[in-house]
Amino acid sequence: MLRYAPVALALAIAGTAAPAFAQDSEFVGIAMFGEYVPQGEGEEDALGDFDGEFDMAGGQICYYLDLDGVTGATGLAIHSGERGENGPMVARLRLPADPLEEECVAVEADVQRAILADREGHYMVVTAPMRDNGAIRGQLID
Question: Is the Cα torsion angle 69, 105, 89, 138 positive or negative in sign?
Answer without folding.
Answer: positive
